[in-house]
Specification:
With 322 residues, the protein is an alpha/beta fold. It has helices at residues 31-44, 54-65, 80-89, 127-130, 183-196, 202-213, 215-234, 258-265, 288-291, 309-321; strands spanning 47-51, 71-75, 95-99, 111-115, 137-140, 158-162, 176-180, 241-243, 250-254, 283-286, 299-303. It is globular, with a radius of gyration of 20 Å. The protein binds pyridoxal-5'-phosphate. Pyridoxal-5'-phosphate is lined by residues 53-55, 79, 81-82, 115, 119, 140, 142-143, 162, 164-165, 174, 176.
């Protein structure tokens, strides 16, 4: 991978012989954004487009590819914010129905939306079943990163990332991405982004590029530590169920009730009590504060960072004992 590239914060570039060149106005594209798109596209096996956030990328897919009266089939237990976004878009005539992504999507779907793995239930989709219909398939592979799941290789049409999470990796860049195989679909999404304006900023693209340079070592370390911690949690008497797909930093586990969850999340010292995932530092939170009764009251979501895994376990063990 390349070394450090300059940040070009220009919003305009001179025409060449009276005609717009590759870069003309920053709402369409800009050099630092284009360089980050090249790097991510290479990693995920398609054409990448950066957005101001993962949610902006999700909204763009629905608004650019669907019309009023059409239906999205959304994996149940997928990222809470995605369901909330789709509820918001219902006013514009786009419906959504939920389905169990470990089986086939409903046949009436005009767009199938799966998550690999789902956040915070950590189920994996049945890729074969999801891609068997003629409807296009979006796979949110935020928690996996391209190191563990490449949706386009699995037959999906669009890979979606909240690059805010593991790809940028340091909790200092809000950024989303779509990676697309079909050039016409990519062109349509690019046109939609240019017209509506949710492109990522150059500084954020630069932070993403820097994050990508260490992605492989970060994810390998997080996977190793998360596997060890999941195993220790499974053997712990205060823990009812542990969900982890065997790769990546994200897992969830249940303690008896909301009070127990509150006690554990506020008792850790090394592990921060905050949201998000895929960062270099570990964090833990009860998801019911955001998702209400959609999740068990005692469900705690843990994202494992790069700290010493023994120190992480000692911290969790003392919090679970408290
Ligand atoms: C965080 C997240 C999103 C939304 O991304 P933002 O960058 O916060 O807008 C979408 N999908 C998943 C799986 C996420 O974890």
């Amino acid at each position: 991978m390349s070394g450090s590239v300059p940040i070009d914060r220009s919003t305009t570039w001179p025409y060449e012989d009276g005609e717009p060149g590759v870069f003309s106005y920053a709402r369409f594209s800009s050099p630092t954004v284009a360089e980050a798109e090249r790097a991510l596209g290479e990693l995920d096996g398609g054409e990448a487009l950066l957005f101001a956030s993962g949610a902006a990328a999700s909204a763009a897919v629905v608004l650019a590819l669907l019309s009023p009266g059409q239906t999205v089939a959304l994996a149940e237990g997928a990222y809470y914010g995605t369901g909330v976004l789709f509820a918001e878009l219902e006013r514009w005539g786009v419906r959504h129905v939920e389905f169990d992504q470990t089986g086939p999507p409903p046949v009436e779907a005009d767009l199938v939306w799966i998550e690999a793995p789902s956040n915070p239930f950590l189920t994996m989709p049945d890729f074969e079943a999801a891609t068997a219909l003629s409807a296009p398939v979006v796979c949110d592979s935020t928690a996996a990163t391209p190191l563990h799941v490449k949706p386009l290789e699995r037959g999906c049409d669009v890979a979606l990332h909240s690059a805010t999470k593991g790809l940028a990796g340091h909790d200092d860049a809000l950024v989303g991405a779509l990676v697309v195989g079909d050039p016409d679909t990519a062109a349509r999404l690019r046109e939609f982004r240019s017209r509506t304006g949710p492109i990522a900023a150059p500084d954020v693209a630069w932070l993403l590029l820097r994050g990508l340079q260490t992605l492989e070592v970060r994810v390998a370390r997080q996977t190793e530590s998360a596997n060890a911690i999941a195993e220790q949690l499974r053997a712990h008497p205060a823990v009812a169920i542990v969900r982890h797909p065997g790769f990546g930093p994200l897992m969830s586990f249940d303690v008896t009730d909301a009070d127990a969850a509150r006690r554990v999340e506020t008792s850790t010292r090394l592990i921060a009590n905050k949201t998000s995932l895929g960062g270099v530092t570990s964090r833990l939170e009860a998801r019911s504060r955001w998702e209400g009764e959609r999740v068990p009251a005692g469900l705690l979501r843990l994202s494992v960072g790069l700290e010493d895994p023994q120190e992480l376990w000692d911290d969790l063990a003392q919090a679970l004992a408290g």
